[in-house]
Amino acid sequence: MKQRYSWLLLVLLFPLLSVAQTPAITRINPTNWWVGMKNGNVQLLVYGPQAGTMTYTIAYPGVKLVKTNTVENPNYAFLDLTIAATAKPGQVQIVGKKGTQTVTQAWELRARDNSPKAQGVTAADFIYLAMPDRFANGDASNDKFADLRDPGSDRANPFLRHGGDLKGAAQRIGYLKDLGVTAVWFTPLIENNQPLTNEGGTMRASYHGYGFTDQYNIDKRFGGNEAYKAYVQQAHAAGLKVVQDAVYNHVGNTHWILQDLPMKSWLHQWPTYTNTSYRYNPITDPHAAQIDRKISLDGWFVPFLPDLNQGNPYVANYLIENAIWVVENFGIDAWRIDTYMYNDQPFMNRCNAALLAEYPRLHIFGESMVSNVVDQAYYTRNKIDFPFKSNQPGTIDFVLEDAMLAALRETGTPAATGWDGGPQHVYQTLAQDVVYQDPNKLVTLLDNHDKNRFLSEIGDDLDKYKIGLTWLLTTRGIPSMYYGTEILMKNFKDPTDAEVRRDFPGGWPGDKEDKFTAAGRSARENEAFDFVKSLATYRRDHKVLHEGKLMQYLPENGLYVYFRYDATGTVMVATNTTDKPAGLPTARFSERMSGFTKGRNVLTKAPLNDLATLQLPAKTAVVLELAK
């Protein structure tokens, strides 16, 4: 680890010790910009041999070079531009001079298009999370590239790349529509030109996508920038929104900038390698030692993912402008932010504000894997008197996930009727929603690519599976589901997370089974698929389940009841988490049921003409649409 750190310092110092070179410009980021943006200020990162030693001029109507910033590394210049509202699309010539030498580099200003973008995701949506490398392969020609640091692809090895891509994902848009999905979230698609890394004695590929090496390129193994644009357009045409996974905290150690750092402070540097503690408590603890807080925030996630210093204004500008560029260039609708709690929170507020100023409907929700409501609220808009106030609109609701899993593990056991057992976990978590400004902006889940699969967590029990999916799709928040949950994919992260990231059967030509089709699924898998489809479709078509208020009643004897209601209707969800059938007298719920005389089972369509006492089978959640 110390050797790796020393290598990074040499990368920084080498340009300062090198002999003079002929000035040149080899990169400009952002790669382009647009006229008509609300914020007309842009900071260009200009890179090339001795690029920081030149004097720059720009002669283009409506574009003004305000300042040229130089840094420790003479190969970088940061140009502050203002782009007037009157500027027209075209090629801006950036001219650098040093003595008798002149370098000219074109930089494009584009017209904004009117295609759908930044629509946001809301409680009306149902998000489907997929790992593109493991979902579907539509183009075998982009599986391997000899010029990449990881040139291989081998489906027989769970730790290597498998060849899934955007073309394959596009071919399954109809499948997602049929399931009732309204938004697609992929783990990162950005270029990850990383070599294999030794993790626990096993060489592993960066197929998950979380080690960026160039934020302005979609990885060519997924099809590249044009394939992503095409996918977003196809998804929008089909009525699906697209969520992009962002990483601000770190990059891959082979990121192009790290090969020649602009300045030492581009990264969080330590005298010797220092890993984050992965502890979130010191971040919010008013009694915490500063060193504990610093290690949590500034320690590296792992040795091969260097930690970016977002307190450096050049780093902050680079990340914020890239985020805006991605929305405008690809037309995405929402951001999921990786490792949100490890980021510099003032930076995150600045980044969120910049995005929302340009795209007011955009939704942003981060990953802060905490285990209590107070710490979770810290990372979103809240009503708590924290010294720091987050402006993040949403967050991923890991606390509710933990509560639902705890309740389901106890379902059918004596603990289900305990004082704090069974559905009490869910009730008590939702009872603390008072801390959030808007709990409906939280993204709910039962598992994801970093967790044990949901079905395995609940003992491969289909009854518990249906209860969990019922809660997910009828309670407050924006539900998300991990790919394959609908066809009962299962496994624990044992021995590694590769076990919960297996290929979707049927996503590759020649697969023995095709679970994308009813004919390729077993009877049990079709039962699960049809259950999700029926409930997701009902949710999509009935505003009461995404716009209605939530009223829950204290669970009694393992029976948990809540209502979603508004002017358009009332839906009752009644859950029996015991292992015996139960009668549920409804007089206690008169506050919400008064005036209703009948109902209809949302899933079976069966009418219910007597609401006085409901008969609930063991381990069952019943969804009833009430009527007068």
Topology:
Elements: H1 2-17, E1 27-29, E2 32-34, E3 41-47, E4 55-58, E5 63-70, E6 76-83, E7 90-98, E8 101-110, E9 127-130, H2 132-135, H3 166-170, H4 173-179, E10 183-186, E11 190-191, E12 197-199, E13 202-204, E14 214-218, H5 224-237, E15 241-246, H6 281-284, H7 290-298, H8 313-330, E16 334-337, H9 345-358, E17 363-366, H10 373-378, E18 394-395, H11 398-410, H12 424-430, E19 443-444, H13 454-457, H14 462-474, E20 478-482, H15 523-541, H16 544-547, E21 549-556, E22 559-566, E23 569-576, E24 582-585, H17 590-593, E25 598-601, E26 607-608, E27 613-616, E28 620-627
Parallel strand pairs: 2-8, 9-10, 9-20, 10-15, 15-16, 16-17, 17-18, 19-20
Antiparallel strand pairs: 1-3, 3-6, 4-7, 5-6, 7-8, 11-14, 12-13, 21-22, 22-23, 23-28, 24-27, 25-26, 25-28
Helix pairs in contact: 8-9, 11-12, 11-14, 14-15
Would you mind describing this structure in some detail?
The chain is an alpha/beta fold and 628 residues long. The chain folds into 3 domains: 10-110, Immunoglobulins (Immunoglobulin-like); 127-545, Glycosidases (TIM Barrel, Alpha-Beta Barrel); 551-627, Golgi alpha-mannosidase II (Immunoglobulin-like, Sandwich). An 8-stranded parallel sheet has the order 18-17-16-15-10-9-20-19. The protein has a 6-stranded antiparallel sheet with strand order 21-22-23-28-25-26. Helix 8 packs parallel to helix 9. Keywords: Glycosidase, Hydrolase, Signal. It comes from Hymenobacter elongatus. GO terms for molecular function: hydrolase activity, acting on glycosyl bonds.
